[in-house]
Specification:
With 429 residues, the protein is α/β, with parallel strands linked by helices. The chain has 15 helices and 14 strands. The protein is globular, with a radius of gyration of 21 Å. The structure holds (4S)-4,5-diaminopentanoic acid.
């Protein structure tokens, strides 16, 4: 077997970094591969350390809505970095990014910047608890809100990929107030609210689930969350770390026309730099220190380089028909793969919204995590490997979403569909 440069680097990394990676899913364990080490990205492509090029549908797990190394984003980063990498003091770029976010998303009256999506969700939950004076959190199975202790219950993403029930290191006492119930199950949700609603601080949801694959909300689900949380005085939190500015210019809340009380962001708003943010109603946000007493802080929060990347990204999303073009490319990709499945007799349940998509190898409609688990994981693994060897870079997990950027061309999409057709013909047993 050829010892590739990626393989050599991975062997070295295994000695120095647990599992050889700094985030579990990218180790590619569930697809029985070793990870590729990436040297650079350009537009829709990444290039590994062995000189291979791939059409990339991971996009750094969502942030790169404009593709890799977008000229304006990189120029803004360079401009900002020349003035210094961090001040730990306010700078005008924080205001500019907050203003831009608020101009896009009507439910945002105030925004607090943090450094990751995990931090955003963790802080939003603390704020909701502080604001309501209640302890219970309701979440949904297969939704992932980062790896903070209280939210790592019934979680998606790496926890689903590696089939880990929870995580050692989280005391049962810490999660005793977290209730996780099936996604899209309106009846169950109403039942749980009837019992716990008046003790519930918040209901947190991915308005489109992206960490158990891509699963859309059924009609009435988000509406039920909105009306019951209002009825019981609980805070409705939309975790838009993945969907924010990805599925619609006003994020998923704009697409579905539901206003949450608080929202969490990350990924796209940082243009590839480490950023998160949470925001929402002034009355709730003003409970945060130093205005209020709910404590939250961060040395690198509002980092000028990250703010510059976010501003340069969001400004480009204002271009008329940006989302129409992105959605139509994503639709073209997903319909093409679905048709290739039909042609070769492979069962596929496919979904897409804006620049986000998912493909499950199952013959049922996927509405929740239990449905997602009916996907043929062995078939997914073969599909992943063969697509990779044809130069198509997909998320190495059935339980992650895929992402299309504005840099992908129709030719890239057609090449991907053709590869899928060829691969399906070879993996059909
Ligand atoms: N958990 C993220 C995806 N939903 C990031 C995975 C990674 O970076 O490895």
């Amino acid at each position: 077997m050829v010892e590739t440069n990626s393989k050599k680097l991975f062997e070295k990394a295994l000695n120095l970094i647990p599992g050889g990676v700094n985030s579990p899913v990218r180790a590619c364990k569930s697809v029985n591969k070793d990870p590729l080490f990436i040297q650079r990205g350009s537009g829709p492509r990444i290039f590994d350390v062995d000189g291979n090029a791939y059409i990339d549908y991971v996009g750094s797990w969502g942030p790169l809505i404009l593709g890799h190394a977008d000229y304006t984003v990189i120029s803004s980063i360079i401009d900002a970095i020349r003035r210094g990498t961090s001040f730990g003091a306010p700078c005008d770029l924080e205001i500019e990014l907050a203003e831009l976010m608020i101009s896009f998303v009507p439910s945002l009256e105030m925004v607090r910047m943090v450094s990751s999506g995990t931090e955003a969700a963790m802080s939003a939950v603390r704020l909701a608890r502080g604001y309501t004076g209640r302890d219970i959190i309701i979440k949904f199975d297969g939704c992932y809100h980062g790896h903070s202790d209280v939210l790592l219950v019934g979680a998606g993403s790496g926890v689903a990929t590696l089939n880990i029930p929870g995580s050692p290191g989280i005391p049962a006492d810490v999660t005793k107030n977290t209730i996780s119930i099936p996604y899209n199950d309106i009846e169950k949700f109403n039942e749980v609210m009837a019992e716990y609603g008046d003790r519930t601080a918040c209901v947190i949801v991915e308005p489109v689930a992206g960490n158990m694959g891509c699963v859309l909300p059924v009609p009435g689900f988000l509406e039920a969350l909105r009306s019951k949380t209002s009825e019981y005085g609980s805070v409705l939190i939309f975790d838009e770390v993945m969907t924010g500015f990805r599925v619609h210019k006003n994020s998923a809340q704009g697409y579905f026309n539901i206003e949450p009380d608080l929202s969490c962001f990350g990924k796209v708003i940082g243009g590839g730099m480490p950023v998160g943010a949470f925001g929402g109603k002034r009355e709730i946000m003003e409970c945060l220190a130093p205005k209020g007493n709910v404590y939250q802080a961060g040395t690198l929060s509002g980092n000028p380089v990250a703010m510059a990347a976010g501003i340069a990204t969001l400004k480009q999303l204002k271009e008329p028909s940006f989302y129409e073009k992105l959605s139509s490319k994503t639709k073209m990709l997903v319909s093409g793969i679905k048709n290739a499945g039909d042609e070769t007799g492979i069962n596929i349940c496919a979904s897409h919204i804006g620049g986000m998509f998912g493909i499950f190898f199952t013959d049922i409609e996927v509405h929740n995590y239990e449905d997602a688990k009916t996907s043929d994981l062995e078939l997914f693994s073969k599909y992943y490997s063969k697509m990779l060897s044809r130069g198509i870079y997909l998320a190495p997990s059935q339980f992650e979403a895929g992402f299309v950027s504005s840099a992908h061309t129709e030719a890239d999409i057609n090449a991907t569909i053709n590869s899928a057709l060829t691969v399906f013909k070879t993996i059909k047993n």
